[in-house]
Amino acid sequence: MTTQSLTGVARAALVVLAAVTAVLLGHRTSASLPDLVLPLVAAAGLVAGPVRGATWGLAAGWVVDIVPPGSPVLGTSALVYAACGLLAGAGRREGSTPWGWVAVVGVGAAVTAGVGRLVVGMVGGEPFDPLARAQGVALSALWCALMVPLLVAGEQWWRRRTA
């Protein structure tokens, strides 16, 4: 098995684990939680570029859409995550990427996801709670700023080690 396919299998397993963990945590608390899947999508985009970032975002969004309770409209999370992966992939840099830049791209992905979910909610007629939305975006941005640099560094380390 090649390094790229091993990385893909590991990333897919992490996406499923993050989606299931988000559902389990969401049922245990009423507090706003960060998006646990988003850093994986942003890191995939930063490492692999916009096309693969969008592809990973689409796949991760489908996982989020089908994990119970799922999405009211199948595919909406997939489109939101695809946009986030595309945006993160546009921020890809060759060689060593500064941690600050990686964190900024992660925060941009969190804001993109927040705006995407807001649009989907408005179209679907969901009630709008600005405080809860802002808390969710802020927590996701913080989570991305912390996790995306670690995920990118880990994947770059893994690729150098196995090359």
Descriptive labels:
163 residues, 79% helix, single chain, globular, mainly alpha, Arp2/3 complex 21 kDa subunit ARPC3, 6 helices
Tally of separate helices: 6
Q: Alpha-carbon distance between the termini?
A: 13 Å
Taking all Cα atoms into account, the compactness measure Rg is 15 Å
Which structural class do you get from the secondary structure elements? mainly alpha
Q: Summarize the biggest pleated sheet.
A: none
Rough outline: globular
The CATH class assignment is Mainly Alpha
Mean pLDDT: 89
Strand content bin: under 5%
Helix content: over 70%
In the predicted model, the low-confidence regions spanning at least 5 consecutive residues are: none
By CATH, the topology is Arp2/3 complex 21 kDa subunit ARPC3
Q: How many β-strands, per DSSP?
A: 0
Order of H and E elements = HHHHHH
Task: Tell me the CATH architecture.
Answer: Orthogonal Bundle
Write down the domain tally. Answer: 1
